[in-house]
Design a protein that fits this description.
With 255 residues, the protein is α+β, with helices and mostly antiparallel strands. The chain folds into 2 domains: 1-96 and 219-237, Glutaredoxin (3-Layer(aba) Sandwich); 103-208, Glutathione S-transferase Yfyf (Class Pi), Chain A, domain 2. The protein has helices at 2-19, 34-42, 55-63, 85-95, 103-125, 134-160, 172-187, 196-205, 209-214, 227-237, 243-253; strands at residues 23-27, 48-52, 74-77, 80-83. Strand 1 (23-27), helix 2 (34-42) and strand 2 form a beta-alpha-beta unit. Residues 102-225 form the GST C-terminal domain.
């Protein structure tokens, strides 16, 4: 009887753990956590955030032993401390049925998401450009967006003949594309000129109730980095100016 009681107690604790809201550990800004926020929000999942604002707070998190590689983002969910952005996103996409219906759809979603990561990384690191680099870097982002990346997704929507990139329902790839479109429009509002299907996709996706809710003021969506938050990020992670070109060198080397 005591053994049964202990077993039931363990089952209850596991059940409570599974039911708890995911907790996101990161700095108070977008970075690599923002796509994770988007995925949870689009799935209609409420989440909590434990945000740090100083290097000392980040070091305390590291010393706690929950960060496998001593780096964030980290998400507490289902009794686990998940790290590595792609691992977190794949887990969430699978858990909340945003990862397609079969292996072929998984593969298409992965390909689309990986391409979008390259573009989003360019935009994410852009605020860390040196002043004399900014104009050149912005031109580079817009040129890549309009000649290399957006044509792929315009064609994907045309070829699929549906409202979505893969299959006939919302997936991780759609959520990522929508986020990156908004990021690109922050660089240049007219960036979708010449991409009518992407324009329709953006308008359609913004009306999905969970996504519409995340777009509203007061949500957990983070604003673009400003000068003050850039200094905070640089102090926490020991970033330096000129990170854009260093990051782009890595991306170019992967092609």
């Amino acid at each position: 009887q005591e053994s049964l009681h202990q077993s039931l107690s363990v089952d209850l604790q596991e059940s409570l753990s599974m039911a708890a809201k995911p907790k996101l550990h990161y700095f108070n800004g977008r970075g690599r956590m923002e796509s994770i926020r988007w995925l949870l929000a689009a799935a209609g999942v409420e989440f909590e955030e434990e945000l740090f604002e100083t290097c000392e707070e980040f070091e305390k998190l590291i010393q706690g032993g929950t960060l496998m590689y001593e780096q964030v983002p980290m998400v507490e969910i289902d009794g686990m401390n998940l790290v590595e952005t792609r691992a977190i996103q794949r887990y969430l996409a699978a858990k909340y049925d945003l990862y397609g219906r079969n292996l072929q759809e998984h593969a298409w979603i992965d390909m689309y998401v990986e391409g979008l990561k390259d573009l989003s990384d360019m935009i994410m690191f852009f605020p860390l450009s040196l002043p004399e680099e900014k104009e050149m870097n912005l031109e580079h982002i817009l040129e890549r967006a309009t000649t290399r990346f957006f044509p792929v997704y315009e064609k994907a929507l045309r070829d699929n003949g549906q409202d979505f990139l893969v299959g006939n329902r919302l997936s991780w790839a759609d959520i990522q594309l929508f986020e990156v479109i908004l990021m690109a429009e922050e660089c240049k509002p007219s960036v979708l000129t010449g991409f009518p299907l992407l324009q329709e996709f953006k308008a359609r996706t913004s009306c999905i109730p969970t996504i519409h809710k995340f777009l509203q003021p007061g949500s957990q969506r983070k604003p673009p980095l400003d000068e003050g938050s850039i200094e905070t990020v640089k102090n926490i992670f020991k970033f330096e100016c000129g990170m854009f070109l260093k990051n782009m060198a890595t991306i170019v080397a992967e092609y």
